[in-house]
Amino acid sequence: MNEYLKKVLNETKIKNQYEPDFIQAVDEFLRTIEPVIDEHPEYENIALLERLVEPERLISFRVPYVNDEGKTIVHRGYRVQFSSLIGPYKGGLRFHPSVNQNIIKFLGFEQIFKNALTGLPIGGGKGGSDFDPKGKSDNEVMRFCQSFMTELQRYIGADVDVPAGDIGVGAREIGYLFGQYKRIKNSYEGGVITGKGLSYGGSLARTEATGYGLIYFMKEMLNANGLELKGKNITISGSGNVAIYACQKAQEYGANVIAMSDSNGCIYDKNGISLDIIKQIKEVERGRISEYVKRKSGAEYIKTEGSDSPIWEIKTDIALPCATQNEISLNSAKKLAANGVLAVGEGANMPCTEEATEYFLKNNILVAPAKAANAGGVAISAVEMSQNSMRYYLSFDEVDQKLHNIMCNIFNSCKNASEHYNLGNNYVAGANIASFIKIAEAMKCQGIV
Ligand code: NDP
After folding, report:
1. pLDDT value at position 3?
2. Alpha carbon of 166 to ligand 1 centroid (Å)
């Protein structure tokens, strides 16, 4: 690592010492952009990297609500407005007990580069709360969302900051959030939030976009390396929005999805997962994945004991982590490699630890990095914003075609960047470099801000 990069990384570690995931995201990023920094010594004079790792604004706020027992509960809400260089801040809201400033900052930092890769005019942001919608009644979720939005509305707007969903924030939560925003503003501003329901301004194919996009990227990556998706065994962690639609598209392409999971354990179904059963359990009943084995003969349930998910011990050709950050440890990476995994596609944000990613790359296992591979969701969110502005809706096929083109373009940007700097098929570096070049250029043009 050159001296400038070392200095910025050290300062980041000191200033953010209680934020390990944020440091991890910055560390992984800085390590891979060295060849570009070597070409641009002038960046140091304008403190380009120091400004890049410091959010433009970080907001934290109180979110009280009354639960069904009449008790007042207080949560903490966040919004990080990281970068508005190339468009309004854009990034999802996460409702999960693990949410804190560290998690929101790492997600917001990643979002800057992901959004730049889409080629669309969207900056980087992220938000959320330590509220857990799991096990709450619809009324409790509604009251929480209304309280959250009553504060968040001060900071967002169609040209300012446009939130969407993430873990724990799906169609139900987006509906309640949008309803409260509209009530407060007394104006229909469709483009203020994305992932909206189809009945009130959402885009067709937004629900499917992240999962489908992951598979489009994976297919391009495999083909570029002389491999095929058809006939491959795939394991997918998680059973939420990203996991379900990745499974659907992989099956459409003739791959065999043999395992999925949730935070309690995984199911292994060597004959191929029945996605209708998963959708019924997860999207309709909001239940646990262990239910699956009661409804499908020949399937096994393996409970998670300890910190590593058992799903990574199952022999597979392709692993798609689609649950959460750091879910593939070095230990899990070694197990996947020993079982002959060919490729890993990151549907979740930063699902591989730095050590796991390094291990895969050293062992010639292809890695589709999150910033690139899961960018389909935010790309179609931007397409939803365009439709809201045009007051005109595209068909499912039109949106899906756009998604496919965007994912192919993103893959090509990663491939071209890695080849240009002689990094072979290291698309992790390729994604970071391609997006950094765009962001750095915009920073240079806009002066010291
Ligand atoms: P959902 O809430 O729909 O689903 C999350 C899934 O992951 C659930 O099956 C959940 O299991 C599991 N999970 C969550 N936290 C943990 C944990 N700590 N340990 C083990 N399993 C866990 O979220 P999404 O599908 O929307 O998001 C999944 C990932 O994809 C996240 O990293 C998100 O940032 C990323 N992503 C999402 C996009 C989108 O458009 N939705 C866009 C780009 C990235 P359980 O129900 O048991 O908690």
Report:
1. 97
2. 7
Q: 166 in ligand 1 pocket by Cβ < 6 Å?
A: yes
Q: Is residue 259 part of a domain?
A: yes
Statement: the pTM of the whole predicted model exceeds 0.90 = yes
Burial status of residue 136 (CB atoms within 10 A of its CB: 0-12, 13-18, 19 or more): middle
Backbone angles phi, psi at 378, to 5 degrees: -70, -30
Residue of 228, 246, 299, 237 whose CA lies nearest to 265 = 237
Task: Write the CA distances from 153 to 19, 62, 145, 156, 274, integer angstroms.
Answer: 27, 13, 12, 5, 41
DSSP code of residue 166 = B
Q: pLDDT digit string (tens) for 289-336?
A: 999 999 999 999 999 999 999 999 999 999 999 999 999 999 999 999
The three-state secondary structure class of 448 is: coil
Residue 136's domain comprises 55-188
**Counting atoms of ligand 1 from 1, which one is nearest the CA of 164?**
40
Decide: 430 in ligand 1 pocket, CB within 6 A: no
Residue with tokens 């004991």: 305
Assess whether the C-beta atom of 322 lies below 6 angstroms from ligand 1: yes
If you measure from the C-alpha of residue 41 to the centroid of ligand 1, how many angstroms do you get, rounded to a whole number? 39
Ligand 1 geometric centre to CA of 326 (Å): 12
Tell which one of 21, 93, 167, 332 to mutate to probe ligand 1, the residue whose CB is within 8 A of the most ligand atoms: 167
pLDDT in tens, 227-273: 999 999 999 999 999 999 999 999 999 999 999 999 999 999 999 99
Candidate of 166, 212, 267, 410 to mutate for ligand 1, largest count of ligand atoms within 8 Å of Cβ: 166
Specify if 290 maps to a domain.
Answer: yes
Express as a percent the part of the chain with pLDDT over 90: 100
Question: Measuring CA to CA, which residue among 138, 147, 130 is closest to residue 181?
Answer: 147
| Shared domain check, 216 and 346 | yes
213 touches ligand 1 (CB under 6 Å): no
For 284-298, write each residue's pLDDT tens digit.
999 999 999 999 999
The response to whether residue 348 sits with its C-beta less than 6 Å from ligand 1 reads: yes
Distance 392 CA to ligand 1 centre (A): 31
- The answer to whether residues 36 and 73 belong to one domain is no
Known catalytic residues are: 126
Give a yes or no: residue 288 inside a domain.
yes
Both 92 and 177 in one domain: the answer is yes
- pLDDT tens readout for residues 169-184: 999 999 999 999 999 9
